[in-house]
Amino acid sequence: MKIYYTSDVHGYFYPSDYLDREFKETGLLCAANNYKKDKNTLIIDGGDILQGSAFDYYLQNKKDSKTIAEIMSMIDVDYFTIGNHDFNYGYDYLKEYITNHSGKCICANVVDKTGEIPIYDHEILEIENKTIGIIGVVTDWVNLWEKKENLTNFEIKDTFSSAKSAYEKIKDTDYKICIYHGGFEIDLDTLEKNSDTDENVGAKIAKELDLDLLLTGHQHMTVPSKELFGTHTLQPPANAVQYMQVDIDFENKKTTSTLCDVSPDVREDIYEKFLDIENDVQDYLDIPIAKLEKDYHPSGKLDMALNGSELADFINSIQLDVSGADISITSFANEIKGFNKIITIRDVLTTYRFPNTLVVLEIDGKSLRDALEQNYSYIVYENNNFKINDAFLNPKVEHYNFDFFSNIDFILDLKKDIGNRIGKIEFNGKTINDNDKFSIVMNNYRSTGAGNFPMYKNLKVIKEINMEVSEILIDYFKNNY
Question: What is the CATH number of domain 287-480?
């Protein structure tokens, strides 16, 4: 039996990274050009398909997830689970995607309260005279991250207990698979725990359920092949820059997986059918929306963390203006474009790449200090040089968990031990004490405490701005420049 597996495609179907209009050897249509489907082959996707790329952004503006379902159906995806970002555009959008998809959605911990969306907790099929059991789950941190209105019709249950319950229905099959939109809470080399949260429970699933294959995602890290507590597991990179091929030898009871490069060519039938949409996306991205005073381009990650960023300051100034908060923080995706003087929609969508909204919290001086200390653990001082802390690079790259603070001044000594680097903090020239209160605006992801910022988690919410930051920026540029 053979499996082709992708996860976290994030709408990168066409051979483009959307930083420009050039053809790039990347994307799901290039991956699918290598797929060879027969009766002993399954094509599986691990979720996060509806949000992420400019293509996705364009379609959600038109409320058209059916096109994405058609693409996945033409690729002949047999089974898929739901990713946390697939909830971002609401119930109806996800419903249209799943109901128009020819494959079967398997996600044991997502319950549609209306009963209108066909979501299953398991599947049993037969290949090569063997019974194959499949279950699927998504990280239950959807409950923390997602807008409440997008979950009104859903119940997101505990990931592990749901996987365990679904497993009981397939435990007697010959080969057992779990599609998990989540990752690992341990270092896969040392097996040491590297997270104290239950956002990712891949190791727990592998250890406590007698699975043969665990297909993971969500973390955007690459795990080509790993035997973990007797379970074969893997994770493909995001955005369909590569894909996984899994080969199962039933006779010798052996599972192997290979990280595969995509084809230099595309699936022509799908490419041609939706090319008008792709061309519209590219034209839409190049629409100028404003003329700025100058270019705002990023420098290297370490340089910006040490010396600041005019680009981050610019975004923070807009967040302060639209929110009315005292303090603002923003972060950058691992790869960003920056703003040209003649700014286009492409510049915005490829610079602020998250689907975040804004939240204004009430913060005290002590929590602000704790947040700054955690933030600057991003940098370490070794051998008379500054470098990025390896904890932000392995097991996955997390530059987005460094924030740029605006509208406060503080003394910072990065040569001191982590946790003891922040000196006096000032707001409007006055020293901030532990009990002083301020308003701080940040993205909704960070406001949940995600990224190891627990000090934000239980702060009082003053205001929520339920509009994606990219849209806030686009509107701001149109109205003010």
Answer: 3.90.780.10
Element (H, E) at 4: strand 2-6
pTM: predicted TM-score of the whole model, two decimal places: 0.83
Confidence of residue 356 (pLDDT cuts 50, 70, 90): confident
Structure tokens at 194: 């590297």
**Whether pLDDT at 448 is above 90:** no
pLDDT of residue 19: 84
β-pairing, 327-331 vs 437-443, is parallel
State the first-to-last Cα distance of the chain, in angstroms, to the nearest integer: 58
Task: Say whether 437 sits in a helix, a strand or coil.
Answer: strand
In the chain, ranges of CATH 3.60.21.10 domains: 2-281
What are the tens digits of pLDDT across the range 196-230? 788 899 999 999 999 999 999 998 889 999 999 99
Q: What is the pLDDT of residues 456-471, one digit of tens each?
A: 988 999 988 877 899 8
- Other CB atoms within a 10 A radius of the CB of residue 377 amount to 16
Return residue ranges of the chain for CATH 3.90.780.10.
287-480
The CATH number of 2-281 is: 3.60.21.10
**DSSP secondary structure string for all residues of 253-271:** TEEEEEEEEPPSS--HHHH
Query: What's the mean pLDDT in 143-159?
Result: 93
Separation of alpha carbons 217 and 362, rounded Å: 34
Report pLDDT digits (tens) over 67-90.
999 999 999 999 999 999 999 999
